[in-house]
Design goal:
There is one protein chain. The chain is α/β, with parallel strands linked by helices and 307 residues long. The chain is 34% helix and 17% strand. It has eleven helices and 14 strands. Strands 10-9-11-8-12 form a five-stranded mixed β-sheet, sandwiched between helices. The structure holds glutathione. The site of glutathione has 20 residues, from α6, α7 and β11. Residues 40-43, 47, 84, 101-104, 150, 153-155, 178, 181, 195-196, 199, 224 line the site of glutathione (GSH).
Length: 307
């Protein structure tokens, strides 16, 4: 149990250590008493406001974990819904302190845009959602298809690459707001909806008129490591000495309370718990842990050494 929490806390450390907004950013957030967290428009399991306006999901839980570490209270978060095209400028301009918008960690985003990815909270990849009645079994059968896709995404670029590489053509239907992309797809304006597989699972489980009428094709055509996004240039990369605040020093290095990991685990839970209740077997999405299992279980998730 102790080892399990240590691993989970390590992951919390990975998310926060890079996210450590020490210096003027951290001071401003602390003075404000509130974390401004950019999220998507609405994707069940990851980030969705319920009927009371309360945001829930795995991405939301990362915002909550950062809030728990900063303020000792997971609820000190203002959620700012952003489209894919808005998310980078929102963090560059300071409108939000961080973005948890299922953004893929890419080289140019991490360099030319003046942003930093702090780690990878979900290993994803792009796939295709199609109505079962089309009888399509493989992405290789999509020649000539009309495909709904959101602009300003890696999705758009991978789509063009994949069709070119397989000598196929397609007609893109490019729509910025995810709920409008889904509406277009379910109304039959496109044969195919493409985004990260996580988004397809969510769309099928939560938005399809009847989930059984849709299939996710077996091809995963890209690597989409999704991570929290912060501004570059005001980060502090701490020399963390001890975990769980037992020995003082780690919280100080991050500029937060020594009980930061305790607060995260108590109020939000460890990564396995967050995954399970939001998108895993304890949720309607039922996504397998797969690559998101801890490395000790054959997955890719592990935190940089906390020392
Ligand atoms: N991971 C890809 C695509 C991510 C993305 O933003 N996709 C949109 C279009 S489907 C989305 O999932 N939005 C979810 C939301 O707004 O709730 C990227 O970083 O470019």
């Amino acid at each position: 149990m102790h080892k399990f929490i240590a691993a989970a806390a390590g992951l919390a450390g990975l998310l926060l250590s890079g996210t450590a907004m020490a210096g003027k950013d951290l001071d401003a957030i602390k003075a404000r008493g509130m974390l401004n967290c950019g999220v998507g428009i609405g994707t069940a399991g990851f980030m969705l406001a319920d009927s009371q306006g309360k945001w829930k999901g795995l991405s939301v839980d990362v915002c909550r974990a950062v809030s728990a570490a900063l303020f000792g209270d997971a609820e000190k978060v203002r959620y700012v819904p952003l489209t894919s095209q808005q998310r980078f400028t929102a963090v560059q301009s300071g409108e939000v302190d961080m973005v948890m918008g299922n953004a893929t960690y890419t080289l140019t985003r991490d360099t030319a845009l003046g942003l930093d990815f702090t780690g990878i909270f979900y290993y994803d990849g792009q796939s295709f959602l199609v109505p079962k009645k089309l009888g399509v079994k493989s992405a290789k059968e999509l020649n000539g298809a009309t495909i709904c896709v959101a602009p300003g995404t890696t999705t758009e670029l991978n789509l063009a690459d994949y069709f070119r590489a397989n000598k196929m053509t397609f007609k893109p239907v490019v729509i910025e707001k995810v709920e409008e992309v889904r509406a277009a797809f379910f109304a039959g304006r496109c044969d195919v909806f493409t985004t990260d597989a996580s988004g397809l699972y969510s769309t099928r489980a939560a938005n399809a008129p009847n989930p059984d009428d849709y299939v996710i094709l077996p091809e995963i055509i890209s690597k989409e490591p999704l991570g929290p996004l912060v501004r570059h240039g005001d980060n502090q990369y701490p020399a963390i000495k001890r975990i769980l605040g037992v020995t003082p020093g780690m919280g100080k290095a991050l500029g937060v309370d020594e009980k930061w990991v305790y607060n995260i685990i108590k109020q939000v839970g460890n990564y396995g718990e967050m995954f399970d209740r939001n998108v895993g077997m304890g949720s309607p999405l039922k996504i397998a842990r797969g690559q998101n299992a801890l490395w000790t279980q054959g997955g890719l998730q592990y935190a940089p050494p906390i020392r």
